[in-house]
Design brief:
302 residues, alpha/beta, inorganic pyrophosphatase (n-terminal core), five-stranded parallel beta sheet, two-stranded antiparallel ribbon, 9 strands
Length: 302
């Protein structure tokens, strides 16, 4: 019988606590993409804080070959994030009770009753839009200690990296929404409606507009000269001294000018659809340096 999410997280806590008390070593294996790197980082940080002896590694994919390497590993227990869906039987055969998977990809029905598989879909959570591996790792980290709530910011990066900003105006839904709100309440992320230009913190305004392909704006996308000309016509200041300004530095009045100028340019060219896609929720990490690629959540996740 499938346990509830809280029961599964309690099971995870018990397993890890036993490893720490018994001084068993723990291996974290994770995927090499954004969600994998962040979920692996979240759970590794939580394990270190809890006093666990652990190491972390990445893998491009999961296979029986990877399982064989885990079996030969000197570590006593294995936590796998963002990988291993469909491999529960193989893991049982090779590692016995010494493993747990934290994941969000769809899995075979037969794995729903395996308590060592802690997967979003088992609990009625859509792993495609409501939570990713980073979110699952965050929930597991919180099961170890409530003080791990500061790791919510990294889970936001996970969700953005997996393009789970599928709500209205690129907002989050489900567990992702809850996790992002926690990060916001702790002052770790600012969530605002803004222009969704590529490179909000790092690209010059003409480049940011030219490289924005969602939405695709005919005549502007990939055309820096046209973007420069358009922005000049808006009357906003494009440079601060000799340095190009970036989208994040625009004030509200300047943003309105840019929006109005783009609206006029796109008049009759699916303008309403374009503008609705161009304005959405942004996720900014205020503790990171301004004009750093770590400050804007979407840039961070790429």
């Amino acid at each position: 019988m499938t346990k509830t999410l809280d029961e599964s997280l309690s099971f995870f806590n018990d397993k890890i606590s036993d490893c720490i008390k018994s001084k068993k070593s723990i291996s974290v294996t994770t995927h090499i993409d954004c969600d994998g790197l962040t979920s692996g980082s979240i759970i590794t940080k939580a394990l270190i804080r809890a006093g666990a002896r652990c190491t972390v590694r990445t893998s491009k994919e999961f296979s029986k070959k990877v399982i064989d390497s885990l079996k030969k590993d000197s570590r006593d227990f294995h936590v796998i994030t963002d990988l291993a869906g469909g491999f529960a039987n193989n893991l049982d055969e090779s590692l016995g009770e010494n493993w747990i998977v934290l994941d969000h990809h769809q899995i075979p029905e037969k794995e729903h009753d395996n308590q060592k598989v802690i997967n979003a879909w088992k609990y009625g959570i859509d792993g495609g839009t409501e939570i990713c591996a980073g979110g699952m790792a965050y929930l597991a980290a919180m099961a170890l200690d409530d003080k791990n709530s500061d790791l919510s910011a990294i889970a936001v990066v996970s969700a953005l990296g997996d393009r789970q900003d599928q709500g209205e105006r690129k907002s989050f839904i489900g567990k992702n929404y809850e996790i992002a709100n926690t990060a916001k309440e702790e002052g770790l992320v600012d969530i605002d409606l803004d222009l969704l230009l590529v490179g909000r913190e790092t690209r010059s305004l003409p480049d940011a507009l030219a490289f924005t392909s969602q939405p695709f704006i005919e005549g502007l996308t990939w055309n820096r000269d046209a973007c420069l000309s358009l922005l000049n016509s808006s009357g906003i200041q494009l440079k601060d001294g000799g340095r190009w300004r970036v989208p994040a530095e625009l004030n509200d009045e300047e943003k309105r000018s840019v929006i109005e100028t783009i609206s006029k340019f796109t008049s009759g060219k699916n303008a309403t659809e374009i503008m609705s896609e161009l304005i959405g929720y942004t996720y900014t990490f205020p503790r990171e340096d301004k004009r750093s690629f770590l400050r804007d959540g979407r840039e961070f996740s790429t």
